[in-house]
Every structure is written in structure tokens, then in C-alpha cells.
Amino acid sequence: MTGNQFSSHTELFDLSEKYALVTGGSRGIGMMIARGLLQAGARVVISSRRADTCAEAQHLLSEFGDVRAIPADLSRHDECQRLADLITTDSERLDILVNNAGAMWREPLETFPDEAWDAVIDLNLKSPFWLVQALLPALRRAGTADSPARIINIGSIAAIHVAQSPNYSYASSKAALHQLTRVLARELGPQHVTVNAVAPGVFPSQMTASTLDAIGDDIAAKAPLRRLGRGDDMAGIAVFLASQAASYLTGTIIPVDGGIATTATGTPS
């Protein structure tokens, strides 16, 4: 579509005939995103480290559309390549890559261990890069000037403001992922691939369970919208970024956090 032609509302957000991979799609934010893409019509592959978790998630998501689960430990380069090979065996084209799989390590500065850097950086930063490398030919085949292929990286508001908890490697990895998003956006734009990042605030998940138990009410009270994130909030931004509505958007970092990071005053209330 070119010039001043306009799509209908349905056409703007329809993902029918699109093929998507969502890493870490078996629970939490990844499952929210997978559900949204499925409801918009996409065929979705989810990946997670544990086979039993993948099977359960595939069963839960199957009511929303065509979904398949592939277990893979994406902290390893060879596993990223294996997953990419399976994806491209099924289809030579990949329209949407959502790099969501991630890890967090909370520990005080004095005792923060070496392995907390390697484990978190490998999964949060290296894995998205490895998957882009391996899947770029399929993304290039899917993208056109009018309808680019999409890479959606899941960052964090911990990379925009300083959180209260000591997540040294997590915050650093997500800040690096935000910058990697911009670097890739510049390089891949001419190849008809957009690259954007979502920076979620606090959403219910296994990763945030301990935080929510301890200070969930306090976090919600300090958000301008006075609540935590919900499934539709994450599904909606993912569908937008994957749809025709976002075909002229690349290199952006979009906070989805109820305004916490972007309106923080820096002083406690």
C-alpha cells in the first residue's frame, strides 16, 4: 500500500498469514504476547527451556489459534541455531521474531557472583543477537517495503530508570538490549525489517512473583495509572508492533509500565 490509500481497522491489525516465533512464550509476558498474536490471526511458535512447560503452554494457548511449542535452552548458541533451523524447516519465511526469553538475578553488591553475569547476559543479550543472526534470511524473505518483517525485543523499564532492587546484570543486559535494538534498526531497515523494543514495567509472572509479594501494592500505588500490568496491555503492544499499523516504526523503545519510568520524580512520596 502506498501514497494516501488507507487500510480498514481490521486490515491494520490483522496478522492472518503471518508466522511468528515468541521465545520464553510458555508463561508470563511471553505467553501474553503469544496469546495476542494468535488472536490477531498469526501462526505462532513458542519456545521455552523445559519440555513439560512447553507442552502445557501449547495446550493452554491452542484455544486461541495455531500454536506449536519447541523446547530449547536459548542461553546456548547451538540451541539458538537448532531452534532457527526448525523454524526455517517449517517455513522459509518468518514474519515476526519476539525475543522475550530472559533471566534475572537478585543479590546484594557485596556477594553478587560472576555466574550472575554470564547466565543473565547470555540469555538476555546474546540470545536475541544469535537468533537475529540465524533467522535474518527468513526475516528478509518475509519483509517488503510496504510490510516489513518485525523483530520485537523485550527490554525493561529497569534499563530506563534505576529500580529499588539490586538487579545489576539484569538492568545492564536490558540497557544493552535497548541499544542493540537501535543499532539493528538502522542496519536492517533498508532490508525491510523493523526492530523495536518493549520496556515492560511490573507484570505478574514467575520472575516477578517475589517482588509482587513484597512490594506489589506499593509499586501499583506509585504508578500514575495506579495498577500493575495486565495481559491485554502486553498483548496489545505486541499486536501493534507486529501489525501494518506499525510498519513505519523502527528503532523505538516503548515503555509499557503505567507511566512509572517516564514520570519518576527521583524522590520517594
From TrEMBL:
PANTHER family hit by this protein: 7-ALPHA-HYDROXYSTEROID DEHYDROGENASE, 7ALPHA-HYDROXYSTEROID DEHYDROGENASE
Naturally occurring in which organism (per UniProt): Mycolicibacterium litorale
GO MF term (any one): oxidoreductase activity
Transmembrane regions: none
Record flagged with keyword Oxidoreductase: yes
Record bears the keyword NADP: yes
Gene3D superfamilies assigned: NAD(P)-binding Rossmann-like Domain (3.40.50.720)
InterPro entries reported in the protein's UniProt record: NAD(P)-bd_dom_sf, Sc_DH/Rdtase_CS, SDR_fam, Sec_Metab_Biosynth_SDR
Keywords: NADP, Oxidoreductase
Name listed for the protein in its UniProt record: 3-oxoacyl-ACP reductase
Family: Belongs to the short-chain dehydrogenases/reductases (SDR) family.
UniProt cross-references to SUPFAM superfamilies, sorted A to Z: NAD(P)-binding Rossmann-fold domains
PROSITE patterns according to UniProt: ADH_SHORT
Top-level taxon of origin: Bacteria
A Pfam family reported for this protein in Swiss-Prot or TrEMBL: adh_short_C2
